[in-house]
Amino acid sequence: MATGLYANMVPSSSRARGGWGCPPGKGEAAAASLSRQLTDSLPSCASSPLSTDLRVGRASTCHSSQLTGLRYPTEPPRTPGFRPVPAGSWGRGPARPPPEEAARGGAGGTGRRSRLRRRTSASGSMADTPAQPTKRKREPDAEGAEGPGPGEKEAAVGNGTSAPVSLPFSGFTVQKVLRESARDKIIFLHGKVNEASGDGDGEDAVVILEKTPFQVEQVAQLLAGSPELQLQFSNDIYSTYHLFPPRHLSDVKTTVVYPATEKHLQKYLRQDLQLIRETGEDYKNITLPYLAAQSLSIQWVYNILEKKAEADRIVFENPDPSDGFVLIPDLKWNQQQLDDLYLIAICHRRGIKSLRDLTPEHLPMLRNILQEGQEAIRQRYQVTGDRLRVYLHYLPSYYHLHVHFTALGFEAPGSGVERAHLLAEVIENLECNPRHYQQRTLTYALRTDDPLLRLLQEAQKR
C-alpha cells in the first residue's frame, strides 16, 4: 500500500487546513484562512500540537576530552546505527531549533528562543546550576542577526522550561504569505500581533511553520492499530490517504521572529537573485564601507561564546581565546537524525568578519576548527570527516567568522558553488599565497533589490 504520509501529515487539530501549497491567485484567501487558524492555535503551547521555537534544553555535565584542554559534554556510548537519545540525556531538549538560510549577504535577522542552560564555573567547567531567566533574539531561517534599530525592542537571552509556554505576543493576523514551499513543507508568514492591546496598529511578526522530518524509530507508530485515514484515491494495488497522526507525532516546528523589522520581511520574501563578482578593491572600497554603515549586531554570537546562552547545546569547545572555537548544532538541525546533520563552529577570536580577513596568522585556528571539529563530530555522532562538508560562506550571513559542518549528502542552504568555500581549500590557499583572500575576485549572489548589488554594479560600469 502506497501512502502519501509525509506530504499529508498534519496536526490533529488542523485536519481541515490542507497543505502548504497556495495556488496562484489564492494568496489572499489563504492568508485570511491562515490568520484564523493561527489566532486559534498559536497562543498556547499547552493546547496545540504546534511546537514553537521557544524550545527546551537539558543540562548535562562535562568531562575532560582526550584532547588536552578541550571539553565535550558527556553522553552515553553510541552504536554505529545512530538512534536519537531521550531528551536530557546528553544536553538537548525534546525538539528543535529554527530553519535555514540566514540573512543573505548580511541582511541579518533575529528570532526568539529559550532553553535551559548550564553556567560556567570559575574553573571553566560546566556546572549544573540553575539557569537565570534571560532572553535573546536569533535568526531563525537562518543564521543572520542584527541589532535593534531605533524604536525596536531590545533583544534578550532566553532559557527554557519544560512547562507549557505562551508565545511572546497575543493574536496573529496574517498580512501576507512571504514564501512557501510544498517540497520543503515550510511556509513563512508575516502577521500583525498585539492589535487588541491598544498598541496602535499592532506590531509585525514573522512566523515560520515547517513540518519536521520523520524519526525512523517512530514511523511504525503511525500505522499501528487503526490509524485515522481519509482515502484520496485507490487504483488497483495503489492507494493514497491523508493520515492524521497522534499529537506526539504531529510536531510542527514553529519559529517566531518578533518584533520583526522591514529587513526581516524582505529577507523572507521570495526574491530573484543575481550573481556579482567582487574584486579585492571592490571589497575595500564598496562592500566593507557598506557593511560598516549597516551597524549589524552579533551580540547573540557573543552570548554563546560567553556561555550566557545555549551553553547546554555546545557539543565541543577549544577554549583558547586566539585559536579556539565552540561547536554547536545549527538551528536548522533538530538533532533527531543524521541525514541533515548541521553544526556551526564559531571562533573565539573577535574581529574576523569573513573570508576576506583571513591571513596566515589565522591558519592555526582554521586547522583546529577542521581537525578538532571533525574529530568531535566523529566521537559524538559517529560521522567521519570524509562524510562531512566543511565550508565557509561568502558573503556570510553574520560577520563573525564561523564554519559550517554538514552531512555530505545534505543539500544545505548556501552550500552551492557561488557561496560555499571548502575550509581545506581555504587553508591551502593561504599556505600558497598569504594575501589570497585580499586579492582574489569572489563571486556570490545577491537579491536583485539589495543596495549592495546596485553599488557594485555601478562601480563596475565606470
What would you note in describing this structure?
The chain is α+β, with helices and mostly antiparallel strands and about 450 residues long. Among the domains are: about 175-270, Phosphorylase Kinase, domain 1 (2-Layer Sandwich); about 275-460, HIT-like (HIT family, subunit A, 2-Layer Sandwich), CATH 3.30.428. The chain is about 20% helix and about 25% strand. The protein has ten helices and 21 strands. The strands form seven sheets. It has a six-stranded antiparallel β-sheet with strand order 15-16-17-19-18-20. It has a five-stranded mixed β-sheet with strand order 1-13-10-9-8, sandwiched between helices. The longest helix is centred in the C-terminal third of the chain and has 19 residues, at about 365-380. The termini are far apart. Belongs to the HIT family. It catalyses: a 5'-end (N(7)-methyl 5'-triphosphoguanosine)-ribonucleoside in mRNA + H2O = N(7)-methyl-GMP + a 5'-end diphospho-ribonucleoside in mRNA + 2 H(+). It comes from Trichechus manatus latirostris (Florida manatee). Its EC number is 3.6.1.59.
Blueprint (SSEs and pairs):
Elements lengths: L4 H4 L18 H15 L8 E3 L9 E3 L6 E3 L38 E2 L5 E2 L5 E2 L8 E2 L35 E9 L4 E8 L9 E9 L4 H8 L4 E8 L2 E7 L7 E6 L4 H7 L4 E6 L1 H15 L4 H7 L10 E3 L6 E5 L12 E6 L15 H19 L6 E6 L8 E6 L12 E3 H10 L3 H4 L2 E6 L3 H11 L1
Parallel strand pairs: 1-13
Antiparallel strand pairs: 2-3, 4-7, 5-6, 8-9, 9-10, 10-13, 11-12, 14-21, 15-16, 16-17, 17-19, 18-19, 18-20
Helix pairs in contact: 5-10, 7-8
Family: Belongs to the HIT family.
Keywords: Acetylation, Cytoplasm, Hydrolase, mRNA processing, mRNA splicing, Nucleus, Phosphoprotein
Catalytic activity: a 5'-end (N(7)-methyl 5'-triphosphoguanosine)-ribonucleoside in mRNA + H2O = N(7)-methyl-GMP + a 5'-end diphospho-ribonucleoside in mRNA + 2 H(+)
